[in-house]
Amino acid sequence: xxxxxxxxxxxxxxxxxxxxxxxxxxxxxxxxxxxxxxxxxxxxxxxxxxxxxxxxxxxxxxxxxxxxxxxxxxxxxxxxxxxxxxxxxxxxxxxxxxxxxxxxxxxxxxxxxxxxxxxxxxxxxxxxxxxxxxxxxxxxxxxxxxxxxxxxxxxxxxxxxxxxxxxxxxxxxxxxxxxxxxxxxxxxxxxxxxxxxxxxxxxxxxxxxxxxxxxxxxxxxxxxxxxxxxxxxxxxxxxxxxxxxxxxxxxxxxxxxxxxxxxxxxxxxxxxxxxxxxxxxxxxxxxxxxxxxxxxxxxxxxxxxxxxxxxxxxxxxxxxxxxxxxxxxxxxxxxxxxxxxxxxxxxxxxxxxxxxxxxxxxxxxxxxxxxxxxxxxxxxxxxxxxxxxxxxxxxxxxxxxxxxxxxxxxxxx
Length: 413
Description:
By secondary structure, this protein is an alpha/beta fold. The chain is 37% helix and 22% strand. It contains 14 helices and 18 strands. Strands 2-1-3-4-5 form a five-stranded parallel β-sheet, with helices on both faces. The radius of gyration is 22 Å and the shape is globular. The N and C termini lie far apart (49 Å).
């Protein structure tokens, strides 16, 4: 059969989609370059917000009308399987909990073909390596925890073996990803800091990016993790979602930390890693959010000055506590607040990036940009756009010659 894997959502989903491609190829199926060329389209779904859910359902109906056989994986396959089957009655549903049985389920539906040697799947020079399923949180707005369940960490030796395979296939960047990297290993008697140290011991010249972690998970491992970040193989990039600048809002969200604890973690990490790139997330219009709480979030961003702020308007998801909370914020107000946060985000980013003009740095040529440009990543994972010729995977010395809110401009030295 000719398959095409179409993935939506987070880095974790992207990595799992790559692994499904690898398994399909190993089973002897043909993996097509486009959905149009395929007989079967595997839709690897995301349902973190309603807009994404509706987009994915619309796409499934379109594919079915085009005569494609559909396999559905990802979070919707877990928490909205009934809704999927109403739209696409003949779809094969494989939720994340059944991923260990992926090959068996595919074979039972589409038959067996001659197997081929398994080849690691990487995109360009980047390999995405999921390190666990689920998390230890209980956030009142999160449908992902309902879809993925409680924490199940992959054994370290399995993760390291996958990374070694990817490095052997030409990877120069390794993304370690899951719902919360900070809680990795709690169920195995190990930690994310220990895993990162072991990754850095692998042979070869490569860079590793740590995925998102929650503040309450970071506080238990901050010392050893910050030390692990000092290794030259680790991007100085910390994705630490705060979600709100109000302790009361964090309580309603069931986030297990305070604003003060978040700020203390950032301060401690920056003392050890001065050139840290800090990425955080905030939610606009969470139920019960007052103007005072909104202002508190803006003030927090001004104090902490994250390099990156991912702004999301609250989206009530089925099965979550937040769906039925009182004082739902009207859409108009939620939109206004998200726009104000986004404006501030770009102001802060421009202020930070402007200070780097004239700096010389080494950066990894990591991906093709728009047109004839290339995107390089320095040790802080800052994207630097160049328009000169270079080879993906090369480490180049650059001079920063310009800036925008989302990236820098550079030239080869």
